[in-house]
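Fold these two proteins, one after the other.
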Amino acid sequence: MVQAHIVGTGSAMPERVLSNKDMESIVDTSDEWIVRRSGIKERRISSTGRDESTTSLATRASLDALKMAGIPAEDLDMMVVGTVTPDRQFPSAACMVQKELGARNAFAFDVSAGCAGFLYALSMVDNAVKCGMSKTALVVGVERLSSVVNWQDRSTCVLLADGAGAVVIHAGPNKGGILSTHLKSDGTAWELLYASYGNSAPPEILQGLDQKPFFLKMEGNKIFKRAIQCLSEISREALEHNSLESEDIALVVPHQANIRIIQGLASNLQIPMERVYTNIHKYGNTSSGTIPIALHEANREGLLKKGAHVLIVSFGAGLTWAAAVLTWSI
């Protein structure tokens, strides 16, 4: 059977860095409080003056991934973007990125699955490759969560950030690549994390912030407990499906939402944190962008070895959660 292989990775981050010290001037918080509760030290926030729209960030990450893969945009036949913060309600972010790339031979669409958006998109591409619909595809996770932050809510505004990551997928007869993907959702719990209409003016320190007419609301304590449970269960399902044990996984690349959630997942899977990739301290929670950004950084750092088993897993609004097991192909 033809397999879907990741052959290129890329990422793009806004230039502006918002530190925990900066957050102290916005809400009643402290660096110690933020680090202890989330593991975040700083985050990236986009600006209207720097061409850092959702489309722009996604395009830059895509070009990065295409360059690594050595594949021109014209060869793409499918593009899927995971996002809940596109620049416009329609057309899709994917179609806008398609224009910027000049990927005229691809069909393109968005997936809205909260923080699990990248993995949902990856699953669709994997299935398309295996059924012969696609040979060369682009999967992007991108968010500008700064545009939907209530900057007066210290429980959420310290967590959220902007960024984009991308991978190029190519069909090949070699064993490995994406071994399996696993998707779940529970719409009965949507009120734990959702968007509500209305928004407050951004703080003075964040001039040039592009805001949407709604903001994120979250039941943090309930989300925390559900996240660890769901991430652990779907990770075990993915491992069992591929007849793998925890010790067979060379690296776990989880959604970067909260370091305590990541530590809880690692403990439940009995995988030491040395084999779990984290960059939440630098970038915060970029929703569907976290996993492809982390994959790109881990790849650049030489932590992803060809032939190694990699587990990626995410949890987000919906509620949605997902996992995939890969045999690294680069």
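Now the second one:
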Amino acid sequence: MLMSNEFAGEVAVITGGGAGLGREICLALASSGAKVVALDVDLVALEETLLLSKQRGGFLKVFQCDVADSENVKSAFKFSEKEFGLCTIMVAAAGIALYTDYLSMVEKDMDRTIAVNLKGPLLCAQESLRQMEKAGKGSIIFISSVQAVMSLFGCVVYAATKSGLIAAARTLALEAGKMGVRVNTISPGTIDTPMLARDLASMNREEAAKFLEKVKAANVLGRIGTPSEIADAVKYLSSSNASYVTGIDLRVDAGFAALKVI
């Protein structure tokens, strides 16, 4: 992959950088000239991201971090500043989805979902904003989901956290604007990630095939998205091309939220 200098001089902190969307966002920004710190609770997965980054080129370092732990988050941003300077891009991509009937959901799982999916991004936004205020610029992006506006069975708490991210970003944009910082969310549709693979692994071949056909038919383009398509959206919102864009939710869902399946 050819390196570019589109994000030269930018320092990006990306949560969930060990796999899926977070990993692809890390690699895309690093190969576009940004200095990137990938955060994840899984150190082994982070090492894989680091190896991939070395193959693609760019400046990337990793830091093991539980985004739900405020002290972990503070340490991660101190590390980032020490290694690369003030953070100017923060993408909260870490998330967990526990598909379960609401009455069967235990409090422990409820707490963890809220902590990782909602509290974690807010903690990271707070630490990044402190640095961005000093830098006089910045872009904060929360990875939400179309499930914030389109309901599916078994996703009550997950959907609540993703909807909360949209409201939080829209409101934070009001406070951050005076600092030169833009705040937005991206709501992906169904993307080919390890999370999707995990769902398919619980099915037999016939069930998996039917499930995939239903997923493809649920959007107007008739296919599943790729992590790189979400990374492209992140690059757009982080770039000068989006210098007048803040407080929005960008849906990257192939028209899923616009399609009524009869």
